[in-house]
Amino acid sequence: MKQIVPSFCSSSSLLISLLPAIFLCISPTQSRLSVKIGSDVLSQICAQTEDTDSCLKALQSDPRTDSTDLYGLAQVSINLANATATETKTKIKSQLGQTTDPNLHDQYSQCLDSYDNAIGKINYANDRWSIKDFLALEAASSDCLIDIDTCKDVTTPASPFLPEQNNKSHLLCNIVSTIAKRLAAGNN
Ligand SMILES: *[C@@H]1O[C@H](CO)[C@@H](O)[C@H](O)[C@H]1NC(C)=O
Ligand SMILES: *[C@@H]1O[C@H](CO)[C@@H](O)[C@H](O)[C@H]1NC(C)=O
Question: 51, 54, 167: which to mutate for ligand 2, most atoms within 8 A of CB?
Fold first, then answer.
């Protein structure tokens, strides 16, 4: 008997001392300032862009989207825009070195400039994001849209890949801009 009582006591006091830890584990620990993006907010954001379905696909392609807040989602979108614009620039460069068609050559060299500028705006957007200057973030993403429109204006359907890349890049800067607007409005 003498041995059973202490071991019973110690195991129940162990359980009691664990209770707060168990509560901590199952209770929500989100702070008010950092609310995880729900699928409802994600859908709302994408519905405000130029292509809802592609927007959802793009954001959900990044594993960070599942666990981040609106501020974090802004950087996800900046990184995606950067990756797509950089990929487009690389494709343009490689085509520029290969094409013998003077019209395509013109398109590619103008678009190379546009994408250089767009990538500059996206990286500037990232600087503004890091200091939480959301109005400047929004302005930088609008500038990115203008740069890509400049390339769109000279792109003809004869280009094998530019129309599609322009659409992808434009949508991603549009997503950055949409999220920046929400952040600037304090609507997170
Ligand atoms: C954009 O991509 C380049 C090249 O991969 C990288 O050096 C840069 O840090 C990226 N910037 C952002 C904001 O994602
Ligand atoms: C690009 O977008 C325009 C308008 O949003 C659409 O009409 C066109 O089919 C798209 N082109 C490609 C190649 O995705």
Answer: 167
- CA–centroid distance, 28 to ligand 1, in Å, is 34
Q: For residue 137, report the distance from its CA to the centre of ligand 1, in Å.
A: 16
The tens digit of pLDDT for each residue in 95-142 reads: 999 999 999 999 999 999 999 999 999 999 999 999 999 999 999 999
Q: Find the helix or strand (DSSP H, E) in which 148 lies.
A: helix 134-154
Ligand 1 midpoint to CA 80 (Å) = 10
State what percent of residues in the chain have pLDDT above 90. Answer: 75
How far is 168 from 174, CA to CA, in rounded Å?
10
The per-residue pLDDT for range 32-73, each reduced to its tens digit, is: 456 788 889 999 999 999 999 999 999 999 999 999 999 999
> Cα separation of 72 and 92, whole Å?
30
Looking at ligand 1, which residue's alpha carbon is closest to its atom 1? 82
- Cβ burial of 167 (10 Å; 0-12, 13-18, 19+) is middle
Q: Where are the domains of the chain?
A: 1-33, 36-185
Question: How many angstroms separate the CA atoms of 97 and 112, rounded?
Answer: 12
Question: What is the model's pTM?
Answer: 0.83
- Superfamily for domain range 36-185: Invertase/pectin methylesterase inhibitor family protein (1.20.140.40)
